[in-house]
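User: Structure please.
Assistant: Input sequence and predicted structure:
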Amino acid sequence: MSGTQTTSAVPAAGSAGRASSASPRKRRVRGTTGAFWLFVGPFLLGLAIFIYVPIVWSLVLSFFRAQNTVVPDVFVGVKNYVDMLTDSAFLGSLWTFTLFGIFIVPTTYVIALGLAVLINRARFARAFFRSAIFIPAACSYVVGALVWKLSIFNGVRFGLANTLLGMFGIDPVAWLSGTGDFPWYWPVVVTARLWLQVGFYMILLLAGLQQIPNNLYEAAYVDGAKPGWQTFIHVTLPGLRTTSVAVLILLLINAYQAFDEFYNLLGNVPYARPPLVYLYYTALGAAQDYGHGSAGALILSLIIAIVTIFQARVLGFGKAD
């Protein structure tokens, strides 16, 4: 009897030992899982409510006639998509964006890279210049656009830009009127965007520059490379490849999302109206046409996805250096 009790007590003690050894691990797993959902759960909930649900609802609306209501009314199939793809105003807005993106993406990259290189080599006041250039990135696009419109490029004789032109004997320019032989509104829109975003991308590239090991430059000097252009081409640019690819993709996506500066500087003008401004007036303007607006938004999203994937593959985004 006592032997049976001893034999049964040994497995019980072993299982108790395994349970005691597994319990802390299970408690850690449960604790880690709980912490994950505690911090990530609200973000996922907000992402689902404010991003995914509107996207799905927009997809549904794009196949229905939904005017003055966000509730699907009459099923129309792909008619909204056909209408948008044959709408000269919508196609014109895509062309406006193309012009804007072709200029703003490489220009911003070149200026931001030049500023990052200069600040990285600065021997004094580096923090001051870095902060001074970055500060506009913290400014609202609406505020920046209004400063450009009301103060610098207001089109009157006493505006800042026209005052500077007057010093060289040049007549005042109606920058935002859209009349005349030259589209003067483009320098206004482009310079506003450059002022607002160059500092942000300069910080990204500066961080990339500071990750390049100094021994690469020293090895280049040993091999006969001269400081300046040669080391920039053969050491700096290859060392910045990953950062540069990420910056170019962000710039392109940001260019597709151009809205605030166009809306606040020009409004709903046909000669310079990016897709988001056109869709804004289509869905939220007098027509309140959510069906066509949703179809246009999904077409624009598809274009952004295709171009971004193509750009990422061409530039080798995610590949090891």
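Confidence is low (pLDDT under 50) at residues 1-10.
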